[in-house]
Specification:
- This protein has 173 residues and is mainly α.
- It has one domain: Skp domain (Protein Binding, DinI Protein, Chain A), CATH 3.30.910.20.
- The chain has 5 helices and 2 strands, in the order H-E-H-H-H-E-H.
- The protein has a two-stranded parallel sheet.
- Helix 3 runs antiparallel to helix 4.
- The termini are far apart.
Amino acid sequence: MRGLAKLTARYSSTLLCTLLVFAAPAHADEMRIGFVNAERIMQEATFAKAASTKLEQEFAKRKKELDDMRARLQSTSDKYDKDAPLLTDSDRIKRQREMVDMERDLERKQREAQEDYNQRRNEELAMVNDRVRKAINQIATSEKYDIVLEEALALYLSQRVDITDKVLKALNK
């Protein structure tokens, strides 16, 4: 019963907020609502593209190292497959261990590189998001918007309230 009460209270507060925002008060024409297409901003904002390019360049060396390791492992494996019938049991076991060690090392380095990349990507995204929020807040304040929402939350979006172009223009100055 308590779970139902919490659930009802939760949906009631959501419904209340929705009604407050979209209810038609006497001064409804005075309320200004704006929407922003965050995905488009991330794709079109100059500094967001620059951040993406910076990350690619930063991790290009590690990517090449991993590609080289993969190629060496593949070459070693191909050579083993070709030589296997001629190898003694001890040589076969030795080469298999070497390949297992190479594969383990490659997997470890791939995992480390992916973790490092994710961490750096999150840092760059945080800086981008901070700058985007500042631009949105500046536009919302200067143009007296009451609410600015992200487009992904909207069920319907009129181009009249889409301020993405304004945000992009502010960001690309």
